[in-house]
Amino acid sequence: MPREILAILDGYGRARRTRHEEARALNHDLAGLVAYAFHQPGDMPEYTPLSTPAASPAPEAPAMSTEAEIEQVRGFFMAMAMQGGEGG
Fold first, then answer.
1. For residues 4 and 79, what is the distance between their CA atoms, to the nearest angstrom?
2. How far apart are alpha carbons 11 and 1 in whole angstroms?
3. Using an 8 Å Cβ cutoff, are 44 and 33 in contact?
4. In angstroms, how far is CA 74 from the centroid of its own chain?
5. What spans are recorded as compositionally biased (Low complexity) (predicted)?
């Protein structure tokens, strides 16, 4: 398999593992809150947000348009073809 395909598949696998870990953490927190609600409703912990609006990350750069993305991919493949290589 070409390196690009392997890199894409590796990235996809890492993203799936990350989403799975996030879901596990959420389910763990939920189980703790359900236990509090069932056994000690008066001792429920207060909600604390993970981040405050002041600590929000810097705004992201504007997303590229679809046409620009297509042209970027086209340029990548043209550069790959000019380098030569396997395949045809």
1. 14
2. 15
3. yes
4. 25
5. 48-65
CA-CA distance, 70 to 2, in Å (whole number)?
A: 21
What tokens appear for 86 in the block? 């396997």
- In which residue are the tokens 């703790």 written? 32
**3-state DSSP of 19-53:** HHHHHHHHHHHHHHHHHHHHHCHHHCCCCCCCCCH
pTM of the predicted structure, to 2 decimals: 0.46
Is 36 exposed, middle or buried, given 0-12, 13-18 or 19+ CB atoms closer than 10 A? middle
Output Rg (C-alpha) for the chain, integer angstroms: 23
Query: With contact defined as beta carbons under 8 Å apart, do 72 and 64 qualify?
Result: yes
Q: How far apart are CA 20 and CA 26, in angstroms?
A: 10
